[in-house]
Amino acid sequence: xxxxxxxxxxxxxxxxxxxxxxxxxxxxxxxxxxxxxxxxxxxxxxxxxxxxxxxxxxxxxxxxxxxxxxxxxxxxxxxxxxxxxxxxxxxxxxxxxxxxxxxxxxxxxxxxxxxxxxxxxxxxxxxxxxxxxxxxxxxxxxxxxxxxxxxxxxxxxxxxxxxxxxxxxxxxxxxxxxxxxxxxxxxxxxxxxxxxxxxxxxxxxxxxxxxxxxxxxxxxxxxxxxxxxxxxxxxxxxxxxxxxxxxxxxxxxxxxxxxxxxxxxxxxxxxxxxxxxxxxxxxxxxxxxxxxxxxxxxxxxxxxxxxxxxxxxxxxxxxx
Amino acid sequence: xxxxxxxxxxxxxxxxxxxxxxxxxxxxxxxxxxxxxxxxxxxxxxxxxxxxxxxxxxxxxxxxxxxxxxxxxxxxxxxxxxxxxxxxxxxxxxxxxxxxxxxxxxxxxxxxxxxxxxxxxxxxxxxxxxxxxxxxxxxxxxxxxxxxxxxxxxxxxxxxxxxxxxxxxxxxxxxxxxxxxxxxxxxxxxxxxxxxxxxxxxxxxxxxxxxxxxxxxxxxxxxxxxxxxxxxxxxxxxxxxxxxxxxxxxxxxxxxxxxxxxxxxxxxxxxxxxxxxxxxxxxxxxxxxxxxxxxxxxxxx
Lengths: 320, 301
What we know:
The structure holds 2 protein chains of 2 kinds. By secondary structure, chain A is an all-alpha fold. Chain A has 13 helices and 4 strands.
């Protein structure tokens, strides 16, 4: 029984989530959808913060690039929004490559500050209507809904399946990646950058790839977000969005997929439950963040230590 | 040309305020290697406390405008300093040994806590600062019309910076602060009480931030609970510009950033005023990450 504990828990969790549409009303389904979106975004940020240990607090910028790419191409050239999913991802990835390239050598706090600056510059650029495409502070409206084989996704219940299937695919992909040689190298950089470099890991290159991959995924979420809201404006991509994502990753358990999903439920879901306490809830939220870091700095569900089936390795085998 | 000098003085006045806030960031970063995200909100608290004291006790009526404002600033500095010490004790001391990220998240939590506290106490709307305290005189300096308030703000911030510089460079306690910034362990061996020095830094830094809060209130005439965020970020940029952890650097960076922003808004584009600071930051981090006055520090292996 113990051997199948993890798959069983995943199964129970998935069953619980996918049965939600049968007994929750549209409002709560929408909350669950938001949790799903934040969970995917936080997973993509987890790639940069959790696996690689880079202090990146500007993830909303990549999210924004993806959303705006989708919105501009959809409203100006009426390309179906679903086809733009990879395009949004690629645009965000390209943007990440261009901005991360010159700053990748910065460490710790300096990187943190420069990523904050990037997200603010992106927001200010959007407000000031760069290239005359982004519609200024009003944003872009009239983005079309996604269509699957003639079936238009419109109601929260329909979006639920879209978003959570996307989350399920993301979790599966990230889970597979986690066991790869590539993510092991990222973990090595997180734990000891100098030792990683000494062991032949091209640190700058790997960090850059982490940024680009994380941004690609965030860009795709931007596309889903744009089609869900049908209107986007610069205020949806401000610095606090980045902070929320960052906090989801750290509080949930940086580097752990389970932790990040739990974090999304706690950070996005709990404030909804305590909606009637309007002002005071954010006060408690801030105090809880401090308390959490004082008493459990590794987060709720920190990643499990890696296990290797060493007994299966025979002398003369290639290493893992 | 007159317009240029007017903007220059305007930039210097705002830059002096940035410099005061930046000093709080840079001193805390110097002794703890922590970006105190809550510092901007302490600045806001200072601003609101000043407003309340002005409105309820009317310090300016008994003592006359100048002594009254001086007393007001001293009171606010004291109160905000106390809050800073408590903040360090509750939120930062327990995470000092932990991962760097924990401290960052703890600081963000404290920032959210304080800004919402201000919102709950004083309300979410803009509040107007009493504007009849200082006489509205315009001085004529070398053919330029300069409001008295602007000169006073600049003079106050410059004298506070002067006092701080003297304290840190010339006194024994100041030497201890500089020692702790270099090496905690070695300072402890030299008989310095590191915890007390860190508490002291959390008294001085937020106190300067509180003073800056009062001056922003007097200068712009209105305050809002979210303003700590934007001023805090700009002041932090000023600290990085001068070289984080470096006290004269924060002063230089603040004044410089104020001037760059004022001139940029006047001669390039007003809409991009807030963007200019960030672009300066990105450029400085790419080309000279240690800041203007910072020294190159080798990474410890």
